[in-house]
Design brief:
Oligomer: single chain
Strand content: 25-35%
Number of helices: 13
Shape: globular
Mean pLDDT: 86
Distance between the termini: 57 Å
Helix content: 10-25%
């Protein structure tokens, strides 16, 4: 039996179901985020995600119409929604259900629908949870966990909906809170600290999710137990008549992981590999395998044991992330310890197992909200082994640098003539924080792009943060003759690196493959191809960029994922773009690399690798080319 909700108070208008449905569909991600933030953290992240979606999907009126909620005065930053009674109605329904879900069950009353596990949506065999955030998001999540349900609701209405105190009290009262409870909730929320911008972080976005399997061994054991119970009476007599211990259900299989000697060694902090501080100086290899163990907590066996245990068996409260193509399984054997220390209110441990860098982080107080990140780094070169991300917070990033790095600096690639900013490091090689382009809010104009400059005894190499544990190595030049990049190589194309964020990228190359004199004496344009190679080998992202005369940044003319063009296997490229001259005429401008011997488009064929032909602005045009030996060249797309 489901307990009915109290009626909405004070509404003067009528909401029909179509109006409420339109508001719910338009603002669905925001409503689900609101429900997720208000729901009690004790439910666990997987159930909170499913419950948030369930509550939002059940927010429509039960009949064809419903009474509108109390009208609110215009609030700052919410102009598109303050006048929409449909949005106000579904928001109130979602908020009321989320508050009901956090109320304790009473013996004398039937539970409300929101207090029970959601019937729909359901996901079998997977655990879902939002993307991992930084230390600030983790600290905010802990503060919200300590608040009461109405106080969390007040905090979210203030931060996410930008309502003032009077409007918050009105909404809470309409959602079923008493006047005194609403006032107390508002005071409690205000005391939690106003970090409202963090509410828009992916940490609290239940619509952008990671998926991991449930306990596979337990699931298999349950299935086996059911079969074994049904067959036990049939085989009991036969087993008793056999000599010795009878048949083994698993044959010659080894014991489960927890009792396997190799598995036990992998979880023993004393078995971790610790490389000598000077080993890299005499080693034939220059990669993560010769990094020494650094940090103030390398001797903290309890911390290391927790980190290894979470790596092997992450619980439901652990935020797990992995770059594309990176397995997130348990350690295959004793791993190498790279770092263990305290940083930005967190304890951080870095491991390396020959294939992956694994980062474990937990709050300084307790272990709730621990995070586990995986990044594939097999085959890393010296240039790709120069640094690992230790922490991201407040829009900044901090790295642990390789032992062979003698100097670190920050360069803005969009200002190649500006001097490098020296970057201080601790004795363990931990850099000072500096702004990361990977943490720039989506939609913000690209006015700068920081790169990390690492200098060793012979080279200065550049890398940039693309949202993963290992920064992407920046190179320049033709695919067959790539060299270390210089800031000038990326001055016009650095903003295009945003297209490679969180894609498992190990290196990005920038190649200026052509220069072209534009018609009507409009100057000379540059054509650049950028190719982001992944650690997994497949799925490279390639962009053809057109830099018009006088332009500060290049425009994307064509892009592709997985194409061999502009790479070492197919070191040629062809791309075109529609361009308007200063005289107002439209042209198709196309350029190929030097290997292209002719280009054809709009009925015109020219020898060489450059073409410019007058076309109508909206005309459909096919572009093609031919390389030496008659090899057909298709444009990048």
């Amino acid at each position: 039996m489901q307990q009915s909700s109290p009626p909405l108070d004070g509404g003067a208008g009528v909401i029909d179901v179509e109006q409420a449905e339109a508001a719910l569909v338009e603002h669905y991600p925001r409503l689900v985020r609101l429900a997720y933030l208000v729901l009690p953290p004790g439910l666990g992240r997987n159930r909170r995600v499913l419950t948030a979606h369930s509550l939002t999907q059940r927010a429509l009126p039960r009949g064809r119409t419903a009474t509108a909620p109390p009208a609110l005065p215009a609030q700052r930053g919410t102009a598109p929604r303050t006048g929409d009674p449909g949005y106000a109605y579904v928001r109130l329904r979602v908020l009321r259900s989320a508050l009901d879900a956090g109320r304790p069950l009473r013996r004398a009353a039937w539970p409300r629908r929101a207090q029970l596990p959601p019937l729909l949506p359901q996901v079998w065999g997977l655990r879902l949870f939002p993307k991992s955030g930084g230390a600030d998001e983790l600290a905010l999540d802990q503060r919200l966990s300590a608040l009461s349900g109405p106080a969390r609701a007040a905090y979210v209405l203030r931060g996410l909906e930008h309502l003032d105190g009077s409007a918050v009290r009105t909404v809470l009262t309409a959602a079923g809170c008493a006047d005194e409870e609403a006032a107390a909730a508002l005071s409690e929320a205000d005391a939690a600290g106003a970090q409202y911008d963090l509410l828009l972080s992916p940490e609290f976005d239940p619509c952008s999710l990671h998926a991991r399997p449930t306990d596979l061994m337990r699931r298999r054991q349950h299935a086996k137990a059911a079969l074994a119970g049904a067959a036990a009476l049939l085989v009991c007599g036969a087993l008793l008549g056999l000599p010795g211990e009878g048949w083994s259900p698993d044959g010659a299989a080894a014991p489960p992981y927890a009792r396997n000697p190799a598995g036990q060694a992998a979880l023993n902090p004393a078995s971790l590999t610790r490389v000598a501080p000077a080993a890299w100086q005499s080693s034939a290899r220059t990669d993560f395998s010769v990094w020494p163990a650094r940090g103030s907590l390398t001797g903290d066996s309890a911390l290391l044991r927790r980190a290894l245990a979470v790596w092997a068996r992450p619980g439901e409260s652990v935020q797990v992330s992995a770059t594309p193509g990176t397995p997130a399984g348990a350690p295959p054997g004793p791993a190498q310890l790279l770092y263990a220390g305290e940083l930005d209110q967190a304890r951080i441990v870095l491991f390396y197992d020959g294939l992956r860098i694994v980062r474990y982080a937990e709050p300084q107080q307790g272990t709730s909200g621990a995070a586990l990140d995986f990044a594939r780094v097999d085959g890393a070169s010296a240039a790709q082994s120069g640094a690992v991300v230790l922490d991201r917070s407040d829009g900044n990033v901090r790295y642990l640098t390789a032992p062979w790095v003698v100097r670190a600096a920050v360069r803005d690639l969009l200002a190649p003539s500006a001097a490098a900013r020296p970057l201080s490091r601790t004795k363990d090689g931990v850099t000072a924080p500096f702004p990361s382009p990977a943490l720039a809010p989506a939609g913000r104009p690209c006015t700068g792009w920081n790169a990390l400059a690492l200098t060793d005894a012979t080279h200065t190499r550049y890398a940039t943060d693309l949202g993963e544990l290992v920064p992407a190595h920046l190179t320049a030049g033709p695919p067959a003759a790539q060299r270390e990049a210089k800031p000038a190589d990326w001055a016009a194309t650095a903003c295009s690196l945003a297209a490679a964020r969180s894609h498992g990228v190990g290196a990005v190359n920038s190649w200026e493959y052509a220069r072209q004199r534009l018609p009507e004496s409009n100057g000379t344009a540059r054509w650049v191809c950028t190719r982001a190679e992944t650690w997994r080998g497949g799925g490279p992202r390639t962009l053809a960029l057109f830099l018009a005369p006088g332009a500060r940044s290049a425009a994307v003319a064509a892009k592709s994922q997985g194409a061999p063009a502009c790479g070492k296997r197919v070191p040629r490229v062809l791309a075109g773009v529609r361009w308007k001259s200063r005289g107002g005429n439209w042209y198709l401008i196309a350029a190929g690399s030097e290997e292209v011997t002719s280009v054809r488009a709009a009925g015109s064929t020219v020898s060489g690798n450059l073409l410019a032909v007058r076309v109508a602005r909206s005309a459909a045009v096919e572009l093609s080319g031919v390389a030496a030996g008659g090899i057909a060249v298709s444009p990048l797309r």
